[in-house]
Design a protein that fits this description.
Blueprint (H helix, E strand, L loop, with lengths): L1 H21 L6 H4 L7 E2 L2 E2 L1 H26 L4 H15 L17
Helix pairs in contact: 1-3
Length: about 110
């Protein structure tokens, strides 16, 4: 199940990176490169709006996949070993330590 989440996160991230790179930071973007067809490009109006919605959608998808993948991750063996050590030390009775013996003082 973890591998599925990793593959989906990587694919969504690649598409998100592609959409971000297509956009022009000065506001032109893909629509400005078509030669004056800024309002309509292959039947899609407001191409910059579509790219912006795609950016938000893919970023939300990546965030949700990351959150949901945390619920499906199995505990690693180091975590389980640490938990058993903590439980073992908590269940063991505390040993009493003896006070150190005082050092003999010279001259007495």
């Amino acid at each position: 199940m973890t591998i599925l989440f990793v593959i989906l996160i990587v694919l969504a991230s690649v598409f998100l990176g592609f959409i971000i790179l297509v956009q022009n930071p000065k506001g032109g973007g893909l629509a400005a490169n078509v030669g004056g067809f800024s309002n309509q490009f292959m039947g899609v109006k407001q191409t910059t709006d579509v790219l912006e919605k795609g950016t938000w959608t893919l970023s939300i998808i990546v965030a949700l996949l990351c959150i949901f993948s945390a619920f499906f991750m199995q505990k690693s063996s180091s975590t389980q070993v640490r938990d058993t050590k903590v439980n073992a030390t908590q269940s063991a009775p505390a040993q009493q330590q003896q006070a150190p013996m005082p050092l003999p003082q010279p001259g007495k």
